[in-house]
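User: My collaborator sent over this chain with a note saying "see what the structure looks like." That's all I know about it. Can you take a look?
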Amino acid sequence: MAKILLIEDDVAFCKLLEKFLIKKSYDVTAAFSGAEAKSKIKSNEFDLVITDLRLPDSDGIAFMLEIKLTHPNVPIILMTGYSDVSTAVKAIKNGAADYISKPFNPEEVLLVITNALQISNNTEPNQIVTASKIGKQSVKKATGEFVKGISKASQKLAEYIQLVSPTNMSVLIIGESGTGKEVIAKSIHENSSRKNTNFIAVDCGSIPKELAASEFFGHIKGSFTGAIQDKIGFFEAANGGTIFLDEIGNLSYENQIQLLRALQERKIKPVGSNKEIEVDIRIITATNEDLREAVKNGDFREDLYHRINEFSIHSPSLVERNEDLMIFSDFFLEKSNQELNKNVIGFSSEVMTIFQNYRWPGNLRELQNCIKRATLLSQGDFIEKMALPMEFFQNEDKKTTDFSLFENEKETILEALNQTNNNKSEAAKLLKINRKTLYNKLNRYDIN
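Assistant: Without extra context I'll predict from the sequence alone. Here is the result:
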């Protein structure tokens, strides 16, 4: 088991990363400052050091060189913000094994760690500089559309998907609009024994109730006006596979009866036909409504509710997955770059602060659309504030106004330091920013 020293002054982020690495069978020791790290290096042997480039009491590169003097064979990985990428490249020239740009995916961290440990054992040394880029490509291929987060909500979601996927249980996915319910359904299908068969997704809200039977079960030519040829319905198309009914609460009461009969008997009858067709399907449904309340009000059949709800999964909102914001942002940026043939590296620190302070009422869908639009508009290497849509700021919670929007930023920082007797932690709280952001701004304005 490789022993890792993790140095990061953002305690919450450090703890999340520490827990993730421990689950991946690494022996992790955490330190929240350069001084604490030096003490632990003196009393312990480590196979790898992962350190943030900017520490409250030490410059990352100087700290790295100091470690290299006493432990020349221990590889060091730097964690950086996108604005520090050029500095990280210089650090590699001075002996760093690799760097990881924030935000990053957990799988990327694992790949870079594996690579660095291999380097220290004199295997494939030519991979040092390119490991991070290779890591991002591998994450894209490995994760597909479903992104595994590190938040508690994401971990619970992944646990439930892994648990229910191998079964044939009917699954009801409950969550706000834009939280990725179809992605969850696809992940269940792809992790099931039906993964090599059809996955049919149906938006129940877009089907007129008069045509629902035809859409679900098909029809034969001449069965009604406009039926000029035979039609295969969604259920027959999904035979042997999975059918996903999104926003099932929008079905009319009559359509609910037809659906219930098909689910109970596992047989369908196309409109206008006397022939029944047996179907072997797994049903996954989704809703952003409270179906139990709909049952009480008589708007949704109770027997159908129990039929589709053998196992329920909560699709968490982006607010519930706040720790995953950087991971999702990076994923959607990579996706946007591919779709738009762009090569944007990442987000400015100002944009990331705005993202972290925003409430995201549209959840993942809003985040994806925002990043895709900003990627299209960006002319440089990083997405800047000016690329964000105007309504983004109009909807922003006034209680979490981004500090970078103050007109006289340097003077405001100096006033906060003065009020707190130069206590940087208290000043950061007063300014409603995290301590790391404050240190970055102190460096920018050369404030000691």
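A starting point for your reply to your collaborator: The radius of gyration is 27 Å.
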